[in-house]
Design goal:
Four copies of one chain form a homotetramer. Chain A has 200 residues and is an alpha/beta fold. Chain A has eight helices and seven strands.
């Protein structure tokens, strides 16, 4: 007889940030809810792959029923700008900030210094090529200010080297993030904050 | 068209300890794995209710195919002792400790001071009645050393009042837990540690 | 007979970030070291006020034996720039960053939203007046990116309003600090990071 | 010219739990208070060695003006019990618990597994010898439930081996400390909690 509790716990252990103990707790939680709730969750997971599709232009996952997602389909957004982000949630964070009106491309990951990770290189080349025909002027590398983010940016600059004459490549501005205190800020952040000071 | 990403995220938000952000991350994680992995998880969740059953004597969830779970079915365990725990994971912790050889009953929850929570009161009465016929001598209240644990113990003592002449009721010993430092220990723990000192 | 342990502990409780328990620990630490070590510490504390003096131009505390501190006395530093910081440690952090070559002024505190705190307003006016005569062109408000820092910057802008025609006032650049991840960045930081993006 | 700020900061770095950054903050804090406050602190530190004395029987530091501290001088306390603690604060914690009425001895440290640390071995032998003449029946090893505490207890048992026939040696009771949850408790704590269960 098989160990279903253990099997399901091991499946949850593959979820991001979930250890064996919390995975077990998820199983017992599911055993404590109604069969209808379990059936509903099971169905949502079974169908999420077909209910949600990946936009062929920005590669993000979207509920949209058209071929393109809402941002890629929106004719009012600025075709001159293409912002590259690591993942769907980063794109959502930029949208919440509310000032960016250009296009997006989701890399689907970062490259670690130890050589792990993968990004959508082939899709990136395809999309940049396509967007150059639509007036693309600037690619914004919107990676996290971490060593992995910088390593990934370096790789993208290599990939985009053939287009450098036709398109600007920029990176997000560095400086004091909300809540930063000078005393605890590192030298790189302070140099950027000084260089990027703004008249008020 | 419905928002499937949001629906699935909301389902994960009901998991213990999971907030909106991590729930979203679970959804994107599932979108990034293979359809076969999603199908497997979906099926495990759909069937966990029927694959796993609740032992009618200790009420824990078990993979066992017999009517009783392995501990309740084991004739070598001591019928004189019945330990009451809050949840399946607490039972597993006691088994890992390796010295207890009596029987168990899983309460399925705790009662909070604000009146929330529920325990399996009717099953408890039924099981205690049944076990009295099999030589039960002592019921160990193995609740956590928290105000909720004490509140739950109080309620159980009320429920078991009619049996007090036929069965001893005990609670787990208090004292220094592994890692406790005297300077940071509260008065109650220190009083228990002094009262329970052991000759060595 | 007086409670010297308690008296000394209460004196240490006034140290920044020190609670009653750690204050007590400091006292017992001092009781455990040699009398010579205690005498040395006692003397350093007694004399720190006279051994260290406050530079009359930047107001920072300095070991310097001249009237001015090393930065204010250095003829090679740029008189066109004056950076205002909250405290001596912030000035030290900027120096460690290594790119700033202008002058400093230490405010000696921040103003809280609840009306607490104080800054060296009179000295600021005096020093700005003096520095205008030496070619001052820009005042950099180098406060922390916190609500207190912004509140203090607002007050300084008020104080400096009479000089606005003769001097630029700037604030440190905002953006991604080292280690910032997009997903967890607030909208204000992301807007600044997008607006301040740099070609690479 | 000497670096007084750095010298005083390095003196504070020797305080328990204080790193370079907080030590610097202490110095600037002292520079910001009045000269009278600094003089007062300086004097308290200079005199703490003579104002406070170590009780020759329990070895704790005390403000008392008699030769013995208040606990050792109290004729009402039970001479049959002697509790050994690591440090003065542990003794204070036991007193706050309010049930112990015996005598104390402060070891003045713990022995680490790597061979560091020291305890007052000679004073311990002297005091135990003296207390045996006054009716001592039991020595309670009240060390923390850590590997260092156990290592120290082992060493004390060695030292006290010659007295084993005339005096009982006990250790504090182990079990659930206040706040302990079963699921997160280690096996040793759970075994002690089960073995030490109490009828209620």
């Amino acid at each position: 007889m098989s160990d279903r509790i253990g099997e399901l716990a091991r499946a949850f252990e593959r979820f991001p940030g979930i250890g064996p103990r919390q995975a077990k707790r998820f199983v017992y939680h599911l055993l404590s809810v109604s069969g209808a709730d379990r059936a509903k969750l099971s169905e949502l997971i079974a169908k999420i792959g077909s209910d949600v599709h990946q936009c062929p232009e920005c590669m993000r996952f979207s509920n949209g029923n058209g071929p393109l997602c809402a941002y890629c389909a929106d004719p009012a957004r600025d075709d001159a700008l293409l912002t590259l982000v690591e993942k769907d949630q980063d794109l959502a964070a930029l949208e919440r900030a509310g000032t960016y009106r250009g296009r997006y491309f989701v890399l689907g990951g970062v490259l670690t210094l130890s050589g792990k990770g993968a990004i959508r290189e082939r899709d990136l080349i395809r999309v940049v090529g396509m967007r150059l025909g639509r007036g693309l002027k600037e690619i914004v590398l919107a990676l996290s200010a971490t060593s992995e983010g910088e390593h990934t940016s370096d790789r993208i600059r290599e990939l985009l080297a053939p287009y450098r004459e036709r398109v600007r490549i920029s990176t997000l501005g560095r400086g004091l993030a909300t809540g930063s205190e000078l005393e605890y800020s590192d030298a790189e952040t302070l140099r950027a904050a000084l260089a990027g000071r703004k008249e008020t």
